[in-house]
Write a structure and sequence with these properties.
- The protein is built from nine helices and twelve strands.
- The protein is of the alpha/beta class and 296 residues long.
- The strands form five sheets. A three-stranded parallel beta sheet has the order 1-2-3, covered by helices on one side.
- Strand 1, helix 1 and strand 2 form a beta-alpha-beta unit.
- Helix 1 crosses helix 8, helix 1 packs across helix 9 and helix 6 crosses helix 7.
- The longest helix has 16 residues.
Length: 296
């Protein structure tokens, strides 16, 4: 793909907060199709670092749902909850380089800092971190660990579907969390470390995650990791016009007819494949995807 000679390796990385629903099947199918269309391999990673949100047994349910749909990982799945030591090593490196620092701020502290500055700096409902603890904790104990974004400038990247993207990371996001105040690993650190260690070359995921990409690119740069290619797929919306998710009542997939579920997911991707049997349909869908979503 392009000038990159690495063998294609993709992944689907669901959070086990419940069974797959229509929206998550779209992401799974797109990532599988892209891997197969480029003669690559496809992995499944269970992103269960946020333990309090995970549902017991949902990980196995998800793997079973994928198998029923013919979407099988080319390696044994991995669970992020078993990889804490690896994330700690990455954080230790960033600390040693002076790129990660302890933060004692609560959300109320952040709000007060912006209020004192006469501003209300919000982004997607979250307050941009103003860098309060960059200069030190002033005797307070760290609650979380953040990555320094000072000097990051404009992060630019090209999405294979969305085209050229850019973000002023320091101004629009601020120093972001790597390890949370509750001791759990933040998504940004875990996903970057795992993608690099697994050798992921291509990330295909829902468009709602595109906003995370500049943070992940900045973190990849600081850790000296290779940058994957990105493709963000259209979202499946609920009746209220918001992204279909477990939080807004998305129903578990009805897989009494797996082919019907896959056809619906393909329709959301703008893809049409015509075959009556699951293996034949998957093969036709790979061909259709190859023509619809060429490499960049």
């Amino acid at each position: 793909m392009g000038g990159d000679t690495r063998p294609y390796l993709g992944r689907f990385a669901p959070s086990p907060t419940g069974p797959l629903h229509a929206g998550s099947l779209v992401a799974a199918l797109a990532s599988w199709l892209d891997a197969r269309a480029h003669g690559g391999r496809w992995l499944v990673r269970i992103e269960d670092v946020d333990g309090p949100r995970c549902v017991a047994g949902a990980d196995r349910t998800i793997l079973q749902q994928l198998a029923v749909c013919g979407l099988l990982s080319d390696e044994e799945p991995v669970w992020q909850s078993q990889r804490g030591e690896i994330y700690q090593q990455a954080l230790n490196r960033l600390q040693a380089m002076g790129l990660a620092y302890g933060c004692a701020c609560t959300r109320a502290d952040i709000a007060r800092a912006w209020e004192a500055a006469g501003q209300s700096q919000q982004r997607h409902g979250e307050l941009v971190y103003p860098g309060t603890c960059r200069a030190g904790l002033q005797g307070r104990q760290p609650r979380a660990w953040r990555l320094l974004t000072q000097g990051s400038g404009i992060i630019e990247w090209t999405d294979r579907r969305l085209g050229r993207q850019r973000q002023d990371l320091e101004r629009e996001v601020g120093d972001f969390v790597l390890k949370r105040a509750d001791g759990l690993w933040a998504y940004q650190l875990a996903v970057v470390v795992d993608d690099a260690l697994q050798g992921i070359t291509d990330i295909v995921r829902g468009e709602d995650l595109a906003d995370n990409t500049p943070r992940q690119i900045w973190l990849q740069r600081q850790l000296g990791l290779p940058l994957p290619r990105y493709l963000h797929t259209p979202l499946v919306l609920g009746e209220n016009g918001e992204k279909l998710s477990k939080q807004n009542g998305a129903k578990a997939l009805d897989l009494s007819d797996p082919l019907a579920a896959l056809r619906q997911a393909a329709c959301a991707l703008g893809l049409h494949a015509d075959a009556r049997h699951l293996p034949d349909w998957l093969a036709a869908a790979v061909q259709a995807w190859r023509g619809m979503m060429p490499a960049s």
